[in-house]
Amino acid sequence: MVVGLKPHVWGCCLISIAIVLLLRPSSLYAQDIVREGSEAADIPRFELDEIVITATRVEEPIADIPRNVTMITSGDIRQAPSNNIVDLIARESGINLRSFFGNDKQAAIDIRGMGDTAPSNVIVMVDGVRFNSPDLTGADFSSIPLDQVERIEIVRGAGSVIYGDGAVGGVINIITKGGQKEPEISLYTSYGSYATFDGRACYRGSSNDLNLAAIGDYYDSDGYRENGYFRKKDASVKTGYDLNDYVSLRVAGSLHQDEYGLPGPVSKENKDIRENRVLTDRPHDYGETADWRAVGGVDIELGRWGSLTAKRGYRVRDNSYIIGYSPLISKDDQIDTIDEDTKSLILGYSREYNAFGLMHGFKCGLDSYVTEYVREERSRDQRKNSETKPIGGYLSNDWRITEGLLFQWGYRYNEYRGRFREDLRRSFNGVKRWVNGDITEKKFTYNVYDAGLVYAFGPEATLFASYATSFRIPNVDEFAQADESLKPQQGRHTDIGGRLRIGDLAECSVTLFQAGIEEEIYYGEDPLTGESFNRNYDEKTIRRGVETDARLYPIDSMYLWGNYTYTEATFEITETFVPLVPRHKASVGVEWNILEPLLLSLTGTFVGSRFDGNDENNNRYEKLDAYTVLYGKLTFTHRGFKLFVGINNILDELYSTTAYSESYYPMPTRNIYGGLEWRF
Predict the structure, then answer these.
(1) CATH code for 7-679?
(2) Is residue 278 within 8 Å of 259, Cβ to Cβ?
(3) DSSP assignment, residue 512?
(4) Residue extents of the structural domains in the chain
(5) What global pTM score does this model have?
(6) Distance (Å, whole) CA 476 – CA 542
(7) 625/198 Cα distance (integer angstroms)
(8) What's the 3-state SS for 304-353?
(9) 25-40 vs 7-23: helix axis angle to the nearest 10?
(10) pLDDT tens, 233-261?
(11) Mean of the pLDDT values across residues 177-205?
(12) Is-contact 174 148, C-beta < 8 A?
């Protein structure tokens, strides 16, 4: 189904753009000449040249990192036919998307086959501060507009030494845009299928030693399914001030508000029937969120003694929702709520030093998070309170044995303390009141380490190998409904790979990986009692596979890329497969400047079949079908003015990324969008 464009929406947008043109004609033209030249300088986009911070929390070239690392640059973001962060990340090797309602709300990114628990086994950072929620929801990607993102860094494999609890499958660090030397204002609007409107306004600039970036975004969509609506508002400000040549201050704040429908799953019989897969039997289920975040930091350069960084973060998240609405009960008694209050402190020190005629690097740091979390389930007369306090410190050193051989090692000590209490709502003389329960305390300590080698065959070829350990402590939802013996999981990870660049023509990489996880945490049914709760797998899980990437510039006007991933996620003894993990996944893409101002972008992704989310034995339910999805976007750019039109799911595929007990969450069929953007 394709919904037509509303004329009054386009009219308002065009009038706004016309006013801007009349107000600023001359300055637009001059600035756009400079901007077009800077964008052209981004090509070719090869990764061996890139500098990233996610792997070690300090700037290092990808060529020196013994992991499979991907950098999604600002050039990639501008050219890609992706409308949100999850679609953009999901096309990379070793990564799978799990979406419930076809948008970026409640969507999860799975790295290296974590399956259903990917939100707790993949760490997401925003500007170096942990973005994961303390419960099963993981990171809310919908609260970060794509225009706010400068680049995205992805490090696959264990990152527990640097990032602590939960860095099992990998780490994603989203770096947002800051101020820039030349002031810039951008206006963006688009409209498409399902009455989807998106409007943004951004400013980036600086004055002397002060820089500023600000963005406002409004998004409104009816959604692909009945009761699949999603509306959100975002606003953020990021500023920096250089006190002098040695001290810089950074402050950022953001607000996200949303409302969304919860249409629930569809049956196996209806998932492939177009008119039925859009229906819902939950027309009144919904949710809404208010999320405030603030981060302040200081960077201090100490000359030959290194550099210091300190960040202090705050987050307040309020989420209310109704699941399973009943007209027989008052609405107030069906609204469940989540209140989260998190404070974070991150300290880091790094220094380069000379020994035996070669340069080496030392890093250490400390991170601490304090979270107060309350989930009030009035529909069940239960309230779960928790306070968690993880704290950890790490050491890491890069030792250059020769000019071409680098040895890295790292160690972390981590301590976790948690206090949990379950309250019940009792009736006293016809009035329900909360009665506090007993307090349960948890304490865990962990020591993890990693080591890696990188050997460079000149500036355009490297080989690497690494070994690391990881850990994950159950989150507050898992502790709230758990087997009494539930304990943290531990893993051992090995990576071997290489990267090769052939001039300005091509670049490729290959990585072999294996991870063994003991006591892996999952939510499942007890075969004896039939009761479902969070517990540890009895068997060790093994994940092994290969990740390949290639980038190619056959001619100046064309950029080709592709990747293929084979992932085998199994239980060690029974050799059955971990649910929701496809063995095969591949993506290809092309960006072609048909004419100087006209760019065609196409992306295709194939995802193989996988077992149902509740099918650990691989014999209870039908597997999810393999699918192929193709996206396209045509962009015309002239003097900072951009017109674009795109098509999602060009092949009109009927598919689902997740299902439980043959209850499926269908993704949208073919849909279109179009819009315009103006930068001045």
Answers:
(1) 2.40.170.20
(2) no
(3) E
(4) 7-679
(5) 0.90
(6) 26
(7) 32
(8) HHCEEEEEEEEEEEEEEEECCCCCCCCHHHHCEEEEEEEEEEEEEEEEEE
(9) 100
(10) 999 999 999 999 999 999 999 999 999 99
(11) 94
(12) no
